[in-house]
Amino acid sequence: MLHRLTISELTARIEKRECTSREATRACLDQIRRVDGQVKAFLSFDEADALAQADAADALVRGGATLAAKPLLGVPIALKDVLAHKGQPLNCASKILGNFISPYDATVVTKLKEAGAVVFGRLNMDEFAMGSSTENSAFFTTLNPWDTTRIPGGSSGGCAAAVAAHEAFATIGSDTGGSIRQPAALCGCVGVKPTYGRVSRFGLTAFASSLDQIGPFTKDVADAALVTQVLSGHDPMDSTSMREPVVDYRAGFDGDLKGLRIGLPKEYMIGGLDPEVDASVRQAVEQLRKLGAEIVEVSLPHTEYAAATYYIIAPAEASANLARFDGIRYGARVDGADPFELNSRTRGEGFGPEVKRRIMLGTYVLSSGYYDAYYIRAQKVRTLIRNDFLKAFEQVDVIVTPTTPSAAFKVGEKSDDPLQMYLCDVFTISCNLAGICGISIPCGFTASPKLPIGLQLLGKPFGEDTLFRVAHAYEQSTGWHREFSPLA
Ligand code: GLN
User: Fold this and answer.
1) Minimum CA distance residue for ligand 1 atom 4
2) CA–CA separation, 64 vs 371, rounded Å?
3) What are the backbone dihedrals phi and psi of residue 146, each rounded to the nearest 5 degrees, phi first?
4) Along the 488 residues of the chain, how does pLDDT read in single tens digits?
5) What span, in angstroms and rounded, lies between the C-alpha atoms of 317 and 5?
6) E strands within 301-426?
7) Catalytic hit among 21, 40, 70, 80
8) 129 in contact with ligand 1, CB cutoff 6 A
9) Ligand 1: distance of its center to the CA of 336 in Å?
10) Whole-angstrom Cα distance, residue 435 to residue 213?
11) Which member of 155, 200, 406, 415 is catalytic?
């Protein structure tokens, strides 16, 4: 049952030589073989490469390597299909990349390897990270390990499902408007969207560069804090990564929230919020109060414009970023009589319908005559949204909300209605627009069927330490994270 351990439990055993990284890696590969036919989290994985990395980690252990120097020593960690891993396929769950193989490692992959991790596998997602269910993958839909008739969330659905099914000890995804926190909530794991600039984006395929941030999925908060710490830091290869010091987040865990002020935004208790989600979140707020926090009502008046603002800015940036997939420089190519025909045929056949919709929306809002009316206005509203948060954070240390309006929905339930799908993100997108940090942690279950519910905590820019401290105190006092999905 090695695959069921947390990272802290596994590394303690590896360091004491009670088990090897090869055994832990084998346990993940066996688990994938046992359940991934039902979950479909992985697009592919390179077993030989994973075992070779595990053997290298075991050699380090024999050589006396410590967790102080290599905090992820021997831990198998899988990647969303947007991150470059040298020598491995990178498709962004799209057909347009064809047989593309990454020529280099993303900075986060380098950092994971330096910390001793075994980096393996390509996890399914919505094509180019556009979606909230993985139904936009060009390959197949990933299913929720709590109920395989339901979606795992998205766009990093494969990341969340793999952790919930214990196919990897942690996974690394990207969050542009909720793509880490929303699937983490729907699959009952912990998911972190670090502050914009906290983690280098070098080697992350760009969707909306002013919103994208890389972060981990884990089984508990301590593991999330550890992996975030490993991923963090300035990188000369990403000029938007900041020179903020990297903090030992776990050093701040004390289980006590006395003196902390936690904000409950009045705008978040919206109509349309599922009553069971509402009840769980209210109960969680009571729990935070019991732990010593003072609960304060705050106002984020521009939140109601967040979805509209995001769906202008994100497609605008996407339309520019995705121009590089031209059939000439990368991946798949469909020939044409001239370069224009080649380009339009390649893009016509290579991109799926949601990606095309985003490119068209983005091109429209950036075109002359509409730029001022849509794009520039959205940028102004974005500033208002950020200012709401900065003002609220003068009063409180952390803000608490539901992560999603409902628990996991059925496959096919919203796939014909893009607007319904976009509304899955109402609670998560303002965090990206404001550039602040956020985490989703389990806070209960629906009654029947039993599906996980997520609590979102939002923190000040570079306030991850407080976020983890609150999340850890809550988690340890409730224990929702100790429930295993039926496929774990
Ligand atoms: N669901 C949102 C979208 O479709 C967010 C995606 C993301 O965070 N990558 O754009």
Assistant:
1) 131
2) 59
3) -80, -25
4) 899 999 999 999 999 999 999 999 999 999 999 999 999 999 999 999 999 999 999 999 999 999 999 999 999 999 999 999 999 999 999 999 999 999 999 999 999 999 999 999 999 999 999 999 999 999 999 999 999 999 999 999 999 999 999 999 999 999 999 999 999 999 999 999 999 999 999 999 999 999 999 999 999 999 999 999 999 999 999 999 999 999 999 998 988 899 999 999 998 776 678 999 999 999 999 999 999 999 999 999 999 999 999 999 999 999 999 999 999 998 999 999 999 999 999 999 999 999 999 999 999 999 999 999 999 999 999 999 999 999 999 999 999 999 999 999 999 999 988 888 888 889 999 999 999 999 999 999 999 999 999 999 999 999 999 999 999 999 999 999 999 999 99
5) 40
6) 398-402
7) 80
8) yes
9) 33
10) 9
11) 155
Closest CA relative to residue 312, chosen from 376, 251, 254, 259: 376
Q: Is 396 exposed, middle or buried (0-12, 13-18, 19+ CB in 10 A)?
A: buried
**Which member of 21, 132, 156, 179 is catalytic?**
179
**Whole-number Å distance between alpha carbons of 292 and 81:** 41
The overall pTM is greater than 0.85: yes
Instruction: Take residue 308 and report the two structure tokens written for it.
Output: 């509209």
Q: How does 169-188 read in b/e, with b if 16+ C-beta sit within 10 Å?
A: bbbbbbbbbbbbbbbbbbbb
Q: How far apart are CA 219 and CA 261, in angstroms?
A: 26
**Both ends of the chain: CA-CA distance in Å?**
10
E-assigned strand segments in 358-429: 398-402
Q: Which atom of ligand 1 is nearest to the CA of 208?
A: 9
261-265: strand order across its sheet: 42-44, 118-123, 76-80, 170-175, 213-218, 190-193, 437-445, 452-459, 398-402, 261-265, 294-298
The finding on whether 177 has its CB within 6 A of some atom of ligand 1 is: yes
**Domains located in the chain, CATH noted:** 2-261+393-482 (3.90.1300.10), 304-372 (no CATH)
Name the burial class of residue 338, with classes exposed (0-12), middle (13-18) and buried (19+) by CB atoms within 10 angstroms of its CB: exposed
Q: Is 155 a catalytic residue?
A: yes
